[in-house]
Amino acid sequence: MRLKQAGTAVVAAVTVLLAAGCTPDEGNRPGGDLKGVGSGSECVIAAPVKVGLVLSLTNGAAFAGEYQKQGLELAFKQLNERKGVHYEVLLEDDETSPDKGVAVYEKLINTDRVSVLVGPTLSSVAFPAFGDAQEAGVPAIGISTTAEGIPQLGDYIFRDSLPEQYALAASIPAAKQALNLKTVAILHDSVDEFTSSAYTTMKETLEHEGIRIVEDESFKTTDTEFGAQLGKVAAAKPDAVVLSALPGATIPLVKQARSMGISSPIVGGNAFNSPFMIGKLGEAAENLIVGGAWSASSGTTGNEDFINAFTAAYGRAPDQFAAQAFTAAQLIDVAVRADCDGNREAIKDNLGQILELDTILGSLSIDEDGEVYQKPVVQMVKDGRLTLLDR
Ligand code: 1QQ
């Protein structure tokens, strides 16, 4: 993990930029005086620090985007109640579309000239959008983008979204132990970048755990009929099903599986961390197992206050997506206050040096690639609620 390795980081950044034949665009720098006086809780910055949020507020990924919006709104409201640094938040809807995501990223970078970006919601939107942030030299934080390779897009790219790789490395062994798993069937959406990446990780983890894959079927993001694939799964009689899908396909797929008599536990990817999806599935959601970044039952620093404040503000309990979004605002504030500087370079440098920070996700660090480190949780749906699975 990196702490104050600025020399190497700068050389690496320059090398990458020279190799790409470009330098961060000076013309779109944030306006106002963003270099403050003092540091930490005493830091005072004259100009507002502009933060661009890009979230899926409509279409397929709005199930997560709406919670993220509220988590971020709550966090920046609380941060703005503190003295010294004022955050001006600019929110854009990427409509769950890579093209729209890139368009609003470019607007926030070049027209609004934000200091830092948060989101987008989906990995498939993040891949092209983060490329633009990297090229422009604007730090960007993924809050739910769990696919492999996201932080490696460049040294301005960070995430506090637990990679699927680590979530599955926890959930598959936990399921194996709790359910004495020997065989599974895998089903996956082969179009979406997050679900395809998770599928590869699932297979690797299953192989590593010595669990035999007795059926391996795929489908498309927009599919709604899964009879053919589920027929093969039923015939293979696996101890459990491992599913990599977004909610749009998960909901009909799990319902059809249950109505065809497939009652085995289903181990899923990050989309399962959604109470929206669990609510839509009703009874069919029982025994779904998922690894994730946050649990309402975790005794992490500030978790209870966060849950209470969120519930009071929005009339519903937060989910993992809200918790990760809330945490991103905290990371930005820590990075800004570290050198009392709201400029892009300072935020980028200090985000990359976060080490064992106490957050509602637990103790959290960010390594030199911009990758997050935290302890995963494993949960199972019991009586309609995500409940910690004993490990
Ligand atoms: C990704 C995800 C999605 C499930 C977030 C909503 O993990 O796209 O990476």
From TrEMBL:
<dbReference type="InterPro" id="IPR028082">
    <property type="entry name" value="Peripla_BP_I"/>
</dbReference>
<comment type="similarity">
    <text>Belongs to the leucine-binding protein family.</text>
</comment>
<dbReference type="InterPro" id="IPR028081">
    <property type="entry name" value="Leu-bd"/>
</dbReference>
<dbReference type="InterPro" id="IPR051010">
    <property type="entry name" value="BCAA_transport"/>
</dbReference>
<protein>
    <submittedName>
        <fullName>Branched-chain amino acid ABC transporter substrate-binding protein</fullName>
    </submittedName>
</protein>
<feature type="signal peptide">
    <location>
        <begin position="1"/>
        <end position="19"/>
    </location>
</feature>
<keyword id="KW-0732">Signal</keyword>
<dbReference type="Pfam" id="PF13458">
    <property type="entry name" value="Peripla_BP_6"/>
</dbReference>
<feature type="domain" description="Leucine-binding protein">
    <location>
        <begin position="48"/>
        <end position="383"/>
    </location>
</feature>
